[in-house]
Specification:
single chain, alpha+beta, TIM Barrel, 16 helices, polysaccharide degradation, Beta-mannosidase_GH2, GH, carbohydrate metabolism, beta-mannosidase activity
Length: 860
């Protein structure tokens, strides 16, 4: 293996990204003309749209017109040259980071690999096949049809499958591409991640590490390991650790082995924190393979954050069950954030810029956690890099969702390879907070297993005999893999999961769908606070996207109204008995809460305002239960969902065209470092006798609380003001000194009985003040708002440079400013109270005039 120095070649990675063409695979003998791809990596839909072969499925009701694409076979091909190198000891390895999904790969017309998992990286050594000029061809089959055939041949039928065709359970293709309750059916195929040729005599196959931080946080030990392939016994391996400032912290050199290991000790390390709790310094670990002459044969680099992360599940002091909270660097964290779905139906279109824009929006919105949902993909490296940099914790589902998966040897081995591949790729990120076995598989097993699922039965042999044998994946296979490959990141069997039942609100995490879902109770959103769990990892309420986005996917102005077939087509939660079930549900929540208009702009506004109000109730109500050590009764709220995969009516906070909906801002306010909250509690104060149903007196008690996510107590003044909706006059006010205890909620006020008539016409403004500085602010309105005949006061809006100043002589609900897409608003959809003028920063506005509306105007 020892080569003369002049023949030593450094590792090369050569992209195979040019010259690609595609065509329909034709088995009849005739040949379709090959066309150049639109970009690379790519998918078949992108290429067909680019060449005008199909209409854009994101427009109008075009989706059914293009679904034939998913039942055809397609071939992608290109040519590449052998690098001109002198060494006779070279390895040539083709690397396919992602192929969607069933394909046959040929080099120079010889089959080298079959693929059946879009989540796997495939590597094929072609050293004996490579020529001076080479042809690479990938023949993609219809994964949908293959899945149907596999389903027919299966010895047992799945117990359940929600969303998408049942055949999706047989194959390792992104479940969401089969259609979900927010997305279309787009059965893509193609080389969706990069392809390249690796040329080497020696290479670093993997670099990983474990970080141990002392209890005092003053000392860190970094145990680094590198897997080496090839090379010479006289080679050396050098490890280097660079600090966040870019300067070399330490280096270690040792002889070449197949597994090189070393330790770095770091005194007084700079610690990585989630956003809102500290900074995100990143160290850099490098490893080099050195030739005897000191030449670098191959290098590998990974960034790391030094932090201690724990999932704390312990008995509560004053409530049943156990906590479920994350602790980072000895600080308990209330996790507030969103569920993440793929940011496009056509994955190669998601750029690094788009990933960073979305993750930055989450951080700017005071969110500190994203759950990567199990019906999508293991995201691109640039997503996790952005989470590292912006301080967003990642709850990572494995890609198993809403289904009873097979436990055949073929499926199990395929999935195990997938899990190991992606754990190795992602485990080094400091943002990684949790591996989670699935999305809602346990929950549906509870509903369908008819006694076959017993969480207390710990014998895997019994699981395999039950009608839900897939439990073995979550309770045996994945825990073992995670413990071996990523022991420092906690593992959780599924979401939701708390044992029996899986959606137990007193243990583990819960999905709270009793607001919204017809299959549940469809409570008014004002009841969100009572639906708390120890960690609420899903909940939400649908809304239209911004009016601009509606106009962009609707090409016929006559179809731009709430009852159009276009709106039905872009609303994906439907049933055989209802064209668009969730459009009906939106209407239900609208009619229960607001007077509103039916023009498309008014309807979109009203639906987004309902969503914003609902999310405020949820986040604020559950945050109130973060009561300090021993009483962390709710430790997280992760809303469904953050983003969209196409332009649609959905639960998202950010629509497909990256425009924030109003809920983005209401949540941002509800999870700010300091907040004040108001709750009205209706009490029966007297009755004529125990039998009457008429002579009863009811009054409303006012409760005010505050919450502090910072690490210091906050001394300030609470100011409460009661304002009449119709006159704008202050009818009552109070001031009191207060202290918001660090990292918990604090009850501040519980008093003031209002009679029924006064309660229904009074708005409360609660503020936490330090001198003239407002630290926190909340406006509480009588519910439901539809009972108010809201006046239309002369709202005054002035613009100076990048600031919008707004005032009103009467209380105004839901003031929304309309600005160009390149202007970044730090707040929107606000309530304005007389004497409490609001100033909003609009970066990039530069004095331009702005349009605005509010609830009373949108009701005309």
């Amino acid at each position: 293996m020892i080569n003369p120095p002049e023949a030593v070649l450094a590792f090369k990675r050569i992209p195979i990204s040019t010259g690609w063409t595609f065509k329909k695979t034709n088995n009849s003998g005739s040949e379709d003309a090959a066309l150049p791809v639109s970009q690379f990596p790519t998918t078949i839909y992108q290429d067909l749209i680019h060449h005008g072969k199909i209409v854009d499925p994101f427009l109008d009701a075009n989706e059914p017109k293009v679904q034939w694409v998913g039942e055809e076979a397609w071939t992608y091909s290109t040519k590449f040259s052998r690098p001109r190198v002198r060494s006779h000891d070279l390895n040539f390895e083709l690397v396919f980071e992602g192929l969607d999904t069933h394909s046959t790969i040929l080099v120079n017309f010889k089959e080298i690999q079959k693929t059946d998992n879009m989540y796997l990286e495939y590597r094929v050594n072609i050293s004996k096949l490579i020529e001076e000029e080479n042809e690479l061809e990938i023949r993609f089959e219809s994964t949908f049809l293959n899945g149907r055939k596999m389903e027919k041949m299966a010895s047992t039928k799945p117990l359940f499958c929600h969303n998408g065709d049942q055949s999706r359970l047989q194959v390792r293709k992104a479940p969401y591409s089969y259609g979900w309750d927010w997305g279309p059916t787009m059965l893509t195929c193609g080389p969706w991640r990069p392809i390249y040729l690796e040329v080497f005599t020696a290479k670093v196959a993997d670099l990983w590490f474990e970080v141990e931080l002392s209890d005092s946080l003053s000392f860190a030990n970094i145990s680094a390991r590198a897997e080496i392939i090839g090379g010479s016994y006289s080679d050396k391996v050098k490890f280097e650790l660079f600090g966040p400032d870019g300067f070399l912290n330490a280096e270690k050199i040792q002889g070449a082995v197949t597994l090189a290991t070393t330790n770095f000790e770091v005194e007084s390390p700079q610690l990585w924190f989630p956003v809102g709790n500290g900074a995100q310094p990143l160290y850099t670990l490098k490893v080099h393979i050195l030739s005897p002459a000191g030449d670098v044969l191959c290098s590998s680099t990974k960034r790391l954050g030094i932090r201690k992360l724990e999932l704390i599940q312990r008995p509560l002091e004053r409530a049943p069950g156990k906590t479920f909270f994350f602790q980072v660097n000895n600080i308990p964290i209330f996790c507030r954030g969103s569920n993440w779905i793929p940011a496009d139906m056509f994955l190669p279109r998601i750029t690094t810029k788009k990933y960073r824009t979305l993750v930055h929006l989450a951080a700017e919105g005071n969110q500190n956690m994203i759950r990567v949902w199990g019906g999508g993909i293991y995201e691109d490296n640039s997503f996790y890099d952005a989470c590292d940099e912006f301080g967003i914790l990642v709850w990572q589902d494995f890609m198993l969702a809403c289904g009873s998966y097979p436990v055949t040897h073929q499926f199990q081995s395929n999935f195990e390879a997938e899990a190991m591949c992606n754990i190795k790729r992602l485990r080094h990120h400091p943002s990684m907070a949790l591996w989670c076995g699935n999305n809602e598989d346990h929950m549906f097993a509870d509903a369908y297993s008819q006694g076959g699922y017993d969480a207390s039965d710990l014998d895997p042999k019994n699981w395999l005999k039950s009608n839900w044998p897939a439990r073995i994946i979550y309770d045996k296979t994945l825990p073992a893999i995670c413990a071996k490959l990523s022991p420092s990141i906690p593992y959780h069997p599924g979401s939701p999961w708390g044992g029996n039942p899986s959606n137990d609100t007193t243990v583990g995490d819960t999905h709270a769908w009793d607001v919204w879902m017809k299959a549940s109770k469809q409570y008014p959103y004002q009841r969100y606070p009572e639906l708390a769990g120890r960690f609420v990892s899903e909940f939400g309420l649908k809304a239209y996207p911004t009016y601009k986005t509606v106009l962009e996917f609707t090409t016929d102005p006559k179809e731009c109204h709430p009852q159009s077939k276009i709106m039905d087509a872009h609303q994906k939660s439907s049933s055989k008995s209802t064209w668009a079930r969730d459009n009906r549900t939106i209407a239900l929540y609208l009619v229960e809460n607001f007077k509103h208009g039916y023009k498309m702009s008014q309807y979109a506004y009203a639906s987004m305002l309902v969503q914003a109000e609902a999310m405020q109730y949820a986040f604020a109500g559950w945050r109130r239960l973060w009561k300090g050590p021993g009483n962390e009764e709710c430790a997280g709220a992760i809303v469904w969902q953050f983003n969209d995969a196409w332009p649609c009516i959905s639960w998202s906070l950010i629509d497909f065209n990256l425009r924030p909906k109003y809920a983005y801002y209401s949540i941002k306010r509800a999870i700010a470092p300091l907040v004040v909250g108001v709750a009205r509690v209706e009490l029966e104060t007297s009755r004529a006798d125990e039998f009457t149903q008429v002579h009863i007196r009811k009054e409303t008690r006012l409760q005010i609380w505050g919450s502090n996510f910072t690490n210091v107590d906050e001394k300030a003044e609470l100011r409460i003001q009661a304002v009449d909706v119709y006159t704008g006059k202050t009818v009552w006010e109070k001031r009191q000194d207060m202290v918001l205890l660090r990292n918990q909620s604090t009850e501040l006020f519980d008093d003031l009985l209002l009679d029924e008539a006064t309660a229904t016409t009074t708005v409360f403004l609660a503020r936490i003040m330090r001198g003239d500085t407002v630290l926190a602010r909340f406006v509480d309105w009588p519910q439901p708002l539809r009972h108010l005949d809201l006046p239309k006061p002369s709202v005054r809006v002035t613009v100076k440079l990048d600031y919008i100043h707004v005032s009103s002589p009467l209380p105004v609900k839901g003031v929304v400013f309309d600005v160009d897409d390149d202007i970044i608003m730090d707040d929107n959809c606000i309530d304005v109270i007389p004497g409490d003028d609001q100033i909003i920063h609009a970066k990039g506005l530069r004095g331009k005039s702005v349009g605005f509306t509010h609830l009373a105007l949108a009701a005309d």
